[in-house]
Amino acid sequence: MITREEILDLAVLAKLFVSEEELDALTEEMSNIISFADTINNAGTEAEFDGINRLSNVFREDVPAPSYPQEEILRNAGGGEDGFFLVRRRG
Amino acid sequence: MGKIAQLHRLLETKKISCKELTEAYLRAIEADNKALNAYVRITPDTALQAACAVDKKIAAGEAICLLEGIPMTLKDNISTRGMETACCSRILQGYVPIYDAFVWQELKARNAVLLGKANMDEFAMGSTCENSCYGGAKNPRNLTHVSGGSSGGAASAVGGNLAVYGLGSDTGGSIRQPASFCGLVGLKPTYGAVSRFGLVAFASSLDQIGPITQDAEDAAIVFDAISGKDPQDSTSCGSEEPAVPGLSKSLSGLRVGIAEEYFEGIRGDVKASLEQAISVFREMGAELVPVGLPSIRYALPVYYILACAEASSNLGRYDGIRYGYQAAGYSSIHDMICRTRSEGFGAEVKRRILLGTYVLSSGYYDAYYKKAQKLRGAVIQDFTEAFSRCDMILAPTVPMTAFESGSAGQRDAVETYLTDICTVPVNIAGIPAVSVPCGLDGEGLPIGMQLIGNHFRERTILNAARQYEEATGRVWIRSAEMGVKL
């Protein structure tokens, strides 16, 4: 079970607003999903997860190379200002 | 012969020019995409440019490779430089990547003809494609039904003959399930076989890119082209062997594992089709071996815990500052980020972010995330043990066939998640699996079976798929009555 208050706390952590109208349905749905997730409590296991496919951490050679042009990166943020991302003051 | 090889021969022998072929697909998209909603963005200029390059090579007498000039599509979460990539989410509207995904670098270098970006559930979260901000894609075999998800647009396009092949991504079944619903072949490769560079992240330890095609040969051709070690993805290791050269091996003596856990709760007609497929394998000389996979009973909750945890972290990057949607009115930076995310994400994405935040939060971390990781280890152990006794496991892809469009409201979230019960174990274990059509239900909707291999054994499962297609006279490879006809 999860309460309305817990969902509101999670929303703050996740930087989401949850409206009053959304809250009731969300509480019910999340409670159902969490009860479903709780079925793993019945599983006993001594196994440990130590990665997939025997992959180990790989480091590449640290070779300097040109990066993406600043203007191109900023184009997705309306061009930015003086090479910086810009959040305009509002309200 | 598969569709790619057929078209390749037509191009090579100048029976058709690549420009004519591309225009035929663009006309078909113009005519049929309204009904299918497979494409969310159509890119005729890029397509025709690639086509002209191929025609020039052919005219100059240069050799072309198999995928050269073949019209295809990419799921909307695969980055394309200079071309909007929105993951079918409001929050990424207007986002234009400044780099190409590794898979697209590889295909572009082979002059692949990209017709457009394919529809999907928002951020690949869903099983019907109906969580797309553009509305869902339809099933070409029956337009009143969904194409499946999350790579529903790619399946709809390939099944409706609006693309020869498509690339999708599979985190918990998102390639195999729509392939099964639309009567197509869908391959989820071994984790690490295909680079994830440029794939917009959902759950990084589970995501893999793979092909959706009309038959196994085409899937092998595309897999060989997109697999490979890529320094841009530290989890990439490439494939151990190409799949295409192994496509004519007899199945005599192949040990096919059957795990009863996969057949629990499967609809009767799906089970009957699978049993028929199993008898085809027996007739081909395969040896059936019972295997036990007790831990996969917990695979679905384990999957939802891990996938949501990873998603809640991965989706933290959407703040409205650097790209994509930004809320119009706000009073502070915190208010701006919260408004942007609340207005930009759809209901399912928000729900999964909240769930992920829950299982990672202090007090719940050990009971959910840590326990799920341990069980992930148990699932891997089960598969390792099973593959010591067999070469491949045969299982259903989905316990049912395609849902009716708009029926999501009749199911709660858990019921919808149950659709993924047969597909998620493979992602948890990082192993490859291919869905292959093996029957039809009473309404004529396709049924799929899953051939699951050990790590890096794509060749084994694709060859088995191919031999099954040949043994059944390619009877389940049926084209919908729409799109481009060969």
TrEMBL record, chain A:
Highest rank taxon of the organism: Bacteria
Keyword Transferase: yes
Keywords: Transferase
Entry protein name: Aspartyl/glutamyl-tRNA(Asn/Gln) amidotransferase subunit C
A Pfam match: GatC
Example GO biological process: regulation of translational fidelity
Family stated for the protein in its record: Belongs to the GatC family.
Subunit (UniProt): Heterotrimer of A, B and C subunits.
Reaction(s) the record says it catalyses: L-glutamyl-tRNA(Gln) + L-glutamine + ATP + H2O = L-glutaminyl-tRNA(Gln) + L-glutamate + ADP + phosphate + H(+); L-aspartyl-tRNA(Asn) + L-glutamine + ATP + H2O = L-asparaginyl-tRNA(Asn) + L-glutamate + ADP + phosphate + 2 H(+)
GO MF annotations in UniProt: transferase activity
From TrEMBL, chain B:
UniProt keywords, alphabetically: ATP-binding, Ligase, Nucleotide-binding, Protein biosynthesis, Transferase
Keyword ATP-binding annotated: yes
Residue ranges of domain Amidase in the record: 20-462
Documented EC number(s): 6.3.5.7
GO cellular component: glutamyl-tRNA(Gln) amidotransferase complex
The reaction(s) this protein catalyses: L-glutamyl-tRNA(Gln) + L-glutamine + ATP + H2O = L-glutaminyl-tRNA(Gln) + L-glutamate + ADP + phosphate + H(+)
GO biological process: translation
Domain of life assignment: Bacteria
Database matches in Pfam families: Amidase
Transmembrane segments: none
Statement: the UniProt record of this protein carries the keyword Hydrolase: no
Quaternary organization: Heterotrimer of A, B and C subunits.
Function of the molecule: Allows the formation of correctly charged Gln-tRNA(Gln) through the transamidation of misacylated Glu-tRNA(Gln) in organisms which lack glutaminyl-tRNA synthetase. The reaction takes place in the presence of glutamine and ATP through an activated gamma-phospho-Glu-tRNA(Gln).
Similarity field: Belongs to the amidase family. GatA subfamily.
Protein's UniProt name: Glutamyl-tRNA(Gln) amidotransferase subunit A
Native organism: Papillibacter cinnamivorans DSM 12816
